[in-house]
Amino acid sequence: MLAAAVQPAVAAEVRDRATEVLAQRLFPMLDAIGRSPETVARLRADRSLATTLAARAKRTAACADAAPCVAEAALWDAQELAALGQAVERDAASLLRERRLIPDDGLASGLAREIHGLNAIVRVYALGMPARYPSIDGPSAAFGSTEAQTRLAAAVRLRNTPRAGSLQALDPSVELGLALLDVNDRTDASGFEPIDGGDNAAAMARARSINWSRYRYTAIVLTGIGPEVPDMPLSPGGKYHVRLAANRFAEGDAPFLIVSGGRAHPHGTPHNEAIEMRRALIERYGVPAEAIVIEPYARHTTTNLRNATRRLIALGAPLDREALIVCNPDQSRMIENPAFAERNRRELGYEPGVIGRRLSPTELTFRPDPRSARIDPLDPLDP
């Protein structure tokens, strides 16, 4: 008796859903290009870009199996970025426009931010450059250690392992950046997508019927203040913040609480500040879930305000109305200080809003700026 013929599987690259979400968050323009084989083919056929890509490939090939050399070769210099930008303008602008991925300051600026963000990932996670805030950011293992070398070697191997929808056919550098974050367990930037679902679903549904004119403020923004003790879910300062916010919310001046803070303190913590603050507001103070919006990505006060503005935009809140920032007096004074505005300009490239009147030692008004909707992957953990 003849055995039934075995039908071969259709050959195809496999999807990596975790990496897909991370790529969409950090590199939305480059990710969209990678998902379009036709666009990749046009870019590969672009004579000007082809010369640049060939030089980059030759530089990488010369490294053989030396992982640090491969990482160094993955960096984009100014001339290479210019060539890529010109080709993308010619061959991918229509795709990016159709998908509404061109930022308010133009395609070239947006693409440059993504490439600079990629370079930052490679430098910090492969080449030993200190992170901007090394006490909470950076690789999972000390640079130069055996463990760090093992993680780097794995990332270099991953960058060439096929993944559906990647940009590998054009240049493997983006895949290397994503792999470096993955092998260091630093995929924080994609952990709660889609952000308007999950814990935010009830608030998003309620926002559709909100009469914003009934409220003095669009939301109370509660900034994170993470613990420095491993395995501590909510810091003592966080407990103070939560009670401040619960009391303020009970006055009825705002329809929503936006709790902002990521998985930042201490380095490698499993706890997320926004999630822990939300839990305390519900369990300890009886705040309804439909009134709480989590912003679980911010790792610094600058991005607390930027990302809170993004949540306000998603809620449909009128941005010409004020929100209210509630936090401890020390942090509140820091936010009010002109040095904080300068820090925003240095780290984000703009101010996420205007700090207004002081109502109390723990309360400041805040008028958000719609430029906060821009994607800024200069900090790969805090886009």
UniProtKB/TrEMBL annotation:
Bias-annotated ranges (Basic and acidic residues): 366-377
GO cellular component, one term: plasma membrane
Domain DUF218, chain residue ranges per copy: 220-329
Stretches for region Disordered: 359-383
InterPro entries in the cross-refs: Cell_Envelope_Assoc, DUF218, Rossmann-like_a/b/a_fold
Top-level taxonomic group: Bacteria
Cross-referenced PANTHER family: DUF218 DOMAIN-CONTAINING PROTEIN (PTHR30336:SF20), INNER MEMBRANE PROTEIN, PROBABLE PERMEASE (PTHR30336)
Protein name: YdcF family protein
